[in-house]
Amino acid sequence: MPADCDLPRPYRAFLVHAVTASGVIVGFLGLQAVIDGAGRAAILLLVAAQVLDGIDGPMARSWQISALYPKLDGYLLDLVVDYVTCVVVPVAFIYHFDLVPTALAMPICALVLFTSALWFSRTDMTTDDHWFRGFPATWNLVAPSCFLLGTGPVVNAVVITALALLQLTDVPFAHPVQVVERRVANLAVTGAWIVAMTYGAIAFPESPVLVRVVLLGAPLWTFATSFEKWLAQRTARPATLEIPIAHSDR
After folding, report:
1. Could you count the other beta carbons within 10 Å of the beta carbon of residue 210?
2. Residues 148/197, Cβ–Cβ less than 8 Å
3. 3-class SS at 85?
């Protein structure tokens, strides 16, 4: 929305918070879809939650809402909603749709919930050039991708376990919207990933070739950029002490 919106200033801030908080309602509907065994609906609702999460940040930064409505902390609200939509609902999805071997389902799901909770509590979550430290708990992309690709439970178990453990590391992952390096390319890849998930869910159980290509290519791009950044950090000279960023808006 434009910065010169006609809404009174406090109402602008509350509107942004309302958009953020509505994500948890969408997440609840997604959880109910998982319980009902409606995989396609659950994925579409996860996509809707992702869209809401993508628009509230630019609104918050444009309107500088932290100064307009200081009673609510938009960053903390965003974390609460993200833990529901990016972790709890996808983990339920993984468990209910047998994406991992039955004997390992509970331990793997518990591991994801545990490491994700630790990651969301990090005070050094992002760098000043908008790279996440550790895998950024985007299970709302991982679980639907495994489901739509039809990868086997053992493969899924290995991938999910590895990503869960990566949440405890400092391996860099690009913020899909705010990252400085290759920002346009990262936006394009993230957008294509979300579109492919959406179309794949609508077409399910059909699996269009282009959807499969994107669902495989987007994660590969993500890990390639992460490895490149990690390698650059390893070979760079020791940097000065970095002060964690205070998060006021999204």
Report:
1. 11
2. yes
3. helix
Q: Which two tokens stand for residue 44?
A: 């579409």
Query: 148 with 201: CB under 8 angstroms?
Result: yes
User: pLDDT: is 135 or 65 the higher one?
Assistant: 135
Q: What is the C-alpha separation between 58 and 62, in angstroms, rounded?
A: 6
**Domains of the chain, earliest start first:** 9-235 (1.20.120)
**Tokens, residue 201:** 């869910």
* Sole residue written with tokens 């869209």: 51
Residue 211, CA distances (Å) to 93, 107, 170, 204, 218 in order: 20, 30, 31, 11, 11
| Angle (deg, nearest 10), helices 139-149 and 39-63 | 150
The residues that bridge with 126 in the sheet, in sequence order, are 132
pTM for the model stands at: 0.86
- Give per-residue pLDDT as tens, 175-230: 988 888 889 999 999 999 999 999 999 999 999 999 999 999 999 999 999 999 99
